[in-house]
Specification:
single chain; alpha+beta; SH3 type barrels; 2 domains; 4 helices; 13 strands
Length: about 190
Amino acid sequence: MKEGVHEYSWIVQPGRQALWTTHYGWPMRWHQLFDDLEAQVTRAEREAFEEEVRARSQGESAAVTLGAVLAAADGQLVRVTLRDGTTVAGTVMDCAAQWLHIADGPREWLVPANAISILDGAPPAAPEPGVIASRLTLGHALRALAEDGGAVLVNAAGSQVRGAISAVGADYLVLAGGRIVAFAAILSVTPAP
């Protein structure tokens, strides 16, 4: 016999299943051979499937934006830490991809997404926001406050300014008296006391 080559022979007995034997004389049943082969294939397929699920889950999680999380936070009890370290806590009354409206009893805040450093209480994974939630910008929310006409307190990067919103541009608001506040500087907007 050549090295590395196995010799097999048949053992056939009347009324019994045919057996393979190796050159060592060990019997080998075909069904055992195929069962083992099938188990190996099943295990390899399961491992490949689990790896694909793991990779897809990681890919899908990586695609979730903060805007999607914000838009899915409606009705959630959240705690938001702003860029300046202050915190806002309450129930999300309304939300979109660019902002949260949070209320805690009579207190209310409009918080832009770019002002959020830490968000606790929102679902960590969420589907992309619908068409309306993705199109409702911070400007839309501020225009609604301007139409209401009430005085607001704008917390903007280390200072607070008070007044009624008289106009809202693409990336800024104007308070009565002409004071302009860039959206990028806004940490929160609350009704003025």
